[in-house]
Design goal:
6-stranded mixed β-sheet, 4-stranded antiparallel β-sheet, mainly beta, globular
Length: about 120
């Protein structure tokens, strides 16, 4: 059973940057897709970004393209989300999750083993 722990959230001003980390423990996730999702206050959880096991392929939701970058360090069993040019609309709890082996996905149903989340708040 894999456990995920997100970190790096906090308060940022619009236009600022934050880097989220997701550390996996219990087993390796090096052959699995990994994803970042977020849940804004009062809204449903939504896809943000995903990366395949080899880091050759990444997907992003339209609203973060060009601002966010997902990456991974398989040696550290960790996935990152670099968030630049933050906007108040990015305010949410951010979650990481494990996807399919040797695959990649963009929907909640394709991911599991959710972490507890980390809060990101962006002020205008």
């Amino acid at each position: 059973q894999v456990q995920l722990a997100e970190s790096g959230g906090g308060l940022a001003q619009a236009g600022g940057s934050l880097r989220l980390s997701c550390a996996a423990s219990g087993r390796t996730v090096s052959t699995y897709a990994m994803g970042w999702f977020r849940q804004p206050p009062g809204k449903e959880r939504e896809f943000v970004a995903s990366i395949d096991w080899s880091a050759r392929t990444a997907y992003y939701t339209d609203s973060v393209k060009g601002r966010f970058t997902i990456s991974r360090d398989n040696a550290k069993n960790t996935v990152y989300l670099q968030m630049n040019s933050l906007e108040p609309e990015d305010t949410a709890t951010y979650y990481c999750a494990v996807g399919g082996r040797f695959g990649i996905g963009r929907t909640l149903a394709e991911f599991g083993s959710w972490g507890p989340g980390t809060q990101v708040s962006v002020s205008s």
